[in-house]
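== Sequence entry ==
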Amino acid sequence: MAEALVKVKEWGNSLGVILPRQFVKEAGLETGDEIIVMKKRADLKPLFGILKEVNKTTQELKDEMRKSWEHA
């Protein structure tokens, strides 16, 4: 399946995207074809550094998870 990361731009009172040539070629698109818009890309930036306050090593965290799985 062909995929492309495109930016939405304002066109008059509407919004639109420009599809890269390689995407059009891979998808076999022609004028008048209909396509499905997949989804908005998630912003993952807020997740980085979320565990800064955890004062445990990765191994300690894995050990804790394994213990909780044994008791489930």
The first strand starts at residue 9 and ends at 11. The radius of gyration is 22 Å.
